[in-house]
Design goal:
The chain is mainly alpha-helical. The chain has a domain of about 90 residues: Arc Repressor Mutant, subunit A, CATH 1.10.10.10. Helices cover about 35% and strands about 10% of the residues. The protein has a two-stranded antiparallel sheet. A hairpin with a 4-residue loop joins β1 and β2.
Length: about 170
Amino acid sequence: MQWKKLGKEPCSVARAVSVIGDRWTLLVLRDCFLGVRRFEAFENRLRIPRPVLADRLRKLVRSEVLKKTLYEKRPARYEYRLTEKGLDLYPVIMALVHWGDVHMAPGGRPLLHRHSCGHRFDPVMVCSQCETELKAREVTVAPGPGGRQNPRKPPKIAGFSSPRPRS
């Protein structure tokens, strides 16, 4: 796989990584979910070089993850707001937050998250059908309509098992 061609791969992870798969983009998205909207605020919080930030924001706007909105005419100033496509990245960001809290925060969580029900929570993925927590060793994969079709050889993915042929 070539980095510049990831967006064309028949793999949802590769296509997603082609949009959000670098450290600055993930940190920009984190800040978007924390309510940051203006270029200068991203620059100050992240201490990111202006050209790099401009490039990442352009890419997120081009990919329709963010919407660029004029908030001041003279001089022209814009803010960046998450689109519906961008808001759909919330579970991804929360999964990274949870992993970081569990494995990379020896002094404890830097932020606590509270749901509108009033409770603090840990993000968990659940099955959309039975609502039990998903665990990697309990999930199987099979080719889908948008993947490469080779019924004789199911895909091998680390941490996942392929379905067993039925007799």
